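Researcher: Going back to the complex we discussed earlier. I've cleaned up the inputs and rechecked each line, so this should be the final set. Can you rerun the prediction on the complete assembly and write out the structure?
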Amino acid sequence: METAKKRMLTGNKAMAEAIAQEMENDKNVFVLGEDIGKYGGIFGSTQGLMEKFGPERVLDTPISETAFIGAAIGAAAEGMRPIAELMFVDFFGVCMDQIYNHMAKIPYMSGGNVRLPMVLMTSVGGGYSDAAQHSQTLYATFAHMPGMKVVAPSTPYDLKGMMTSAIRDDNPVVFMFHKSLQGLGWMDQLDYAVGHVPEESYTVPLDKANVMREGKDVTIVGIQMMTHYAMEAAERLAQDGIEAEVIDLRSLAPIDKDTIINSVKKTHRLVVVDEDYRSYGMTAEIAAIVSEEALYELESPIKRLAIPDVPIPYSHVLEDFVLPGPDKIVETVKQMMDEA
Amino acid sequence: MEFVARHPNLWSKKGGVAVTKFEEKQPSVSVDKLMWMYEQMVKIRYYEDQMVEAYTEGKSPVFNIGEGPVPGEMHLATGQEPAAAGMMVHLTKDDTVTAPHRPHHHAIAKGVDLKKMTAEIFGKESGLGKGKGGHMHLFDPEVKFSCGGIVAAGIPHAVGAAMANKMKGKDWVAVAFIGEGAANAGAFHESLNLAALWNLPLIIVVEDNSYGISVPKTASTSVESNDLRASAYGVAGAYVKDNDPVAMYKASEEAVNRARNGQGPTIIEIETFRFLGHFQGDPELYRDKEEVPGLRARDPIMKLRQQLLDAEHVNEPELEEIETRAKKEVDDAYQFARDSDYPKPEAALDDVFTS
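Model: Rerun complete. Updated structure for the full complex:
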């Protein structure tokens, strides 16, 4: 009997493979950013590209985010398909004008006459004591503002497929990858950072959530690390006879309302878990959507788990306290079931 | 009719200000091109004069910025025509231009569709952006023109266009127009470093109209003129005095040739005149009442007109014919804008994404 051996890749190799395949397919695709050349990207998302495509298409830039993200916009307007890397999403403060006043608004202000087919990829997430200026996700900050597609894939399979879709999309796409899911040798070795990735090119849509686990008792919506923590929590809850349905949101904007609503109609309970600040964030948005469209399906109040509106602290004990994790999810769901 | 050129190689050798006067070495300027510039400048002036009228409609006796057929902020370029005409005479539709919040003179000289541009300013469905942009946000990909309302932000876009030109193996250039106030923004300095580092076909034209809104250049800028900053980035610089159209022509010609020949970026600063306020409705309490009449006495359009006549390049009836043609084009554009329909309200929901 022949056993098919599945090819396994880390998150960052999956991303780099998608970029390489698109660069082979389309000469207009190029990459620019800090340390993305010889280094291969601090989080490995561009590894091997410099060797393969040379410095004309893989451009190490100075520490000038305004200039190089703005240049990506200018090049995209001329028909190129740039991929710019903002090393940490936390650095958005030095270049948000280009991202939001220009990248996100020019297509609209031009009445659709100017297209900006570009990808702004950026690392997000904490959990490794990098403190307040290098640990945020800022999912909601970007998803709040119209004009950008904002995606945050959680698995190597989706990192490759959604990167391919993002490069081929004619709209600006903010592509957030989670540092802990890149499979880096110098971070915690997590099983979720490695997964099956087909060698051939494929796409994953930029507007569809993914039901990771089916269940009948409660819906848990997460994204990136929180999806994986929700999966861990679901396994533990199953031992107590509680069947949780876990939804990986994958795409923050546009948001896949249908998958969430349909799940809530089945389970009648909702927990939303987010590695972003609590107020005005993704948890609030999903709670609002469900309240507007499926309030009477609920058997208990919606619960939200998120960072309690403080900057991300440095010390392990402090950071662990503010980040949601499997324990908090299990505890929250059990409380919810007891109250019912 | 001269400009001052500063070359980075001279800077580094002598370690000081190297000034070369170029007036004798330049090839003579062709009459056809001067006539083209004259026509553009007349068209721009008349366009802005008509805009003063249109903007005023519905705003009296009480001035309310949101009223009238042309609502919102309005920044006019009356007096600043030489910068646009003197540069654009050297460009084709394949060259990219980015402009700031005061963009009409650049748009007109770049050949932006005047009817669609005017309709956009009137907020009409037939406008360049279907009424979603307005006067500070004009985009005409047909002639590679864009502008925006954030100071200095168009410079990186021009850097990107210059990159794209280089990657495509074309000799097209990219020109970013900015005001002198923008030369103190981070985007200016980041962009110049990047463009110089990558030897891109970029030209930055700094229009020094003396004021960033109300603050005079002397109170905002550490150097006398921004072309001096070229030396900080190892690029070429040129300074055009007295809003002179022919000197602007010459400085631009040299910069465009340099960019097309792969010799990298140039900063041109032109001393220009803002005849009107920062925006329409600006009480202009920050400048002397005598200042504007003094500037108007040095009107660059009258100067070029007289130069053309004095040199016997052209006679009075020929100039009048140009003026009539330019005015008709503007009148037709305003008529088109007024006759056009407003967009359907729900069209506000379109064009966030393209499918």
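Model: Worth noting: Chain B has a mean pLDDT of 93.
Researcher: Good, that matches what I expected from the previous run.
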